[in-house]
Structures are given as C-alpha cells and as structure tokens.
C-alpha cells in the first residue's frame, strides 16, 4: 500500500511503496530545509505529472533517502544543516551518475554555479526566479528524460525486520 | 531643531583662554609628495579590487542559461 510516511526527523516525508510508478511518471526527490520551498517545488512537480517520492530537509538525509529510493530527479538546495547541498550532490552523483540533479538555491555567485556544474549538476535555478521559471525547467527536464530514457536503477527493497 | 553655537572665551576643560585659539600649528603647507591624491588612491583600490578573491561575481538566471548552453555545445 502506498502511503505517505513522515520520517523520524522533522521535515522528511517519504512516499513509501511508490517504487513502481506510472510508466511516464518522473520520480522526484525535493531537498530543502525550508518547508514552504519544498511545498512549492513539490506542488510544481505534481502539477506537471511528476511524482514526489520524498521530501527531505537536509543533505545527509537526502543522500540516505536517495540511495534507497533512487529517484530520477533530485531538486537540491545548497545551504542546509548537517550536510550542504553541494556535498550531497557529490555523494548522490557517486551513487548514480545518471541522476538529474537540479540545484535550486539563492547562491548566485559564479564560483558556486561552476562548482556545482563541474560536480555534475544538470541544472541550476535561482530561488529569486518566478515560479514560471521552475515550471519551465521541470517541463524541459521531463522532455529530456522522456526523449532519452535510461536504464532505471530499481529501488532496493528494504529488508524485512 | 537648529541652534547657533556661541564661541566660548575659555576652554570648558582646562579653563585656558581661547581668544588666540584656532591657529594651526603648522606654518608651511605639506609638499606635493606627502599629500594623498584621493583620485589616484581610488583608482588603485579599484584596480586591486579586481584581484581580490573575496569579491564575488554574481550571476543571473540568464547568465546560468548561457553557461549551460555553452557547456552543452562543448560536450557535443
């Protein structure tokens, strides 16, 4: 049964049991320490037909949840507690280099942008943009993913207790 | 509210007469070499600022789009 389960730590919600999504549903994890940003991004993903498999509030948790659920797209903030988004990006890309990682942040310095792109971020969107920009970017990513379907890493089954 | 300052005749701290005050101790003006040229200093500061690693170059979403397009083309 697919159910939305709130994690032990605050701000982590995982849609468990949704590993098998609709054939054309893009599976997305949203990572941001601000709940209202997660809500806006998750709303945009859902409105465009994507599936939010997890909402996570820090980098360390994002890496752990990613390893378990293997979403196709990760929307990742940079300034977060425990583990920064740029460090989480490295770890996520090490687990699965084919993952589309979108950095969504207020960090607008060229050094940060270039670092993230060099580490494998596919896109970089500034938080000061209008929502339309996020919708446009998501639609572009959906198009790219559906045009070039890759072999999807099956989410690991959790061991029975 | 504006008030007009009344010149004091004696110093409020030491009580000395201020009748002869206000005369600068220096008798000669400074030579040209010892003066600060603010325009020159500003130009030098601006030049050095260009090499300051602490200065962050900020970008817009359009700049990021151009950068991504450039990287995509380079990859092909």
> Most extensive interface: pair and counts?
A-B, 13 and 11 residues
Percent of sequence in beta strands of chain B: under 5%
Number of helices of chain B: 2
**How much helical structure, as a percent, in the residues of chain A?**
25-40%
Helix content of chain B: 25-40%
Number of H/I helices of chain A: 5
Shape of chain B: elongated
In the predicted model, the low-confidence regions of chain B spanning at least 5 consecutive residues are: none
Question: Which features does this protein show?
Answer:
heterodimer; A: alpha/beta; seven-stranded mixed sheet; 20% strand; globular; disordered N terminus; B: 76 residues; mainly alpha; 36% helix
Q: Can you describe what's shown?
A:
The complex is a heterodimer of chains A (161) and B (76). With 161 residues, chain A is of the alpha/beta class. Helix content of chain A is 38%, strand content 20%. Chain A has a 7-stranded mixed beta sheet, sandwiched between helices. In chain A, a hairpin with a 6-residue loop joins strand 1 and strand 2. In chain A, helix 1 crosses helix 5 and helix 2 runs parallel beside helix 3. Chain A is globular, with a radius of gyration of 15 Å. The N terminus and C terminus of chain A are likely disordered. Chain B has 76 residues and is mainly alpha-helical. Chain B is elongated and about 85 Å long. Chains A and B meet through helix 4 and strand 7 of A and helix 2 of B.
């Amino acid at each position: 049964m697919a159910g939305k389960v709130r994690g032990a730590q605050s701000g982590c919600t995982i849609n468990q049991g949704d590993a098998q999504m609709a054939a054309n549903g893009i599976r997305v994890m949203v990572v941001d320490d601000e709940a209202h940003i997660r809500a806006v991004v998750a709303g945009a993903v859902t409105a465009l037909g994507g599936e939010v498999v997890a909402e996570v509030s820090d980098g360390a948790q994002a890496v752990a949840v990613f390893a378990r659920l293997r979403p196709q797209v990760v929307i990742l903030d940079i300034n977060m507690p425990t583990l920064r988004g740029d460090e989480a990006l490295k770890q996520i890309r090490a687990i699965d280099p084919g993952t589309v990682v979108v950095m969504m942040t207020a960090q607008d310095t060229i050094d940060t942008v270039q670092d993230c792109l060099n580490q494998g971020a596919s896109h970089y969107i500034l938080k000061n943009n209008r929502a339309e920009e996020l919708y446009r970017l998501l639609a572009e990513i959906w198009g790219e993913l559906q045009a070039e379907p890759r072999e999807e890493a099956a989410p690991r089954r959790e061991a029975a207790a | 509210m504006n008030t007009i300052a009344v010149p004091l005749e004696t110093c409020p701290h030491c009580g000395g007469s201020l009748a002869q005050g206000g005369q600068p101790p220096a008798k000669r003006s400074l030579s040209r070499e010892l003066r600060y040229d603010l325009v020159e200093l500003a130009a030098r500061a601006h030049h050095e600022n260009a090499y300051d690693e602490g200065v962050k170059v900020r970008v817009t979403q359009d700049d990021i789009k151009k950068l991504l397009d450039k990287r995509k083309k380079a990859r092909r």
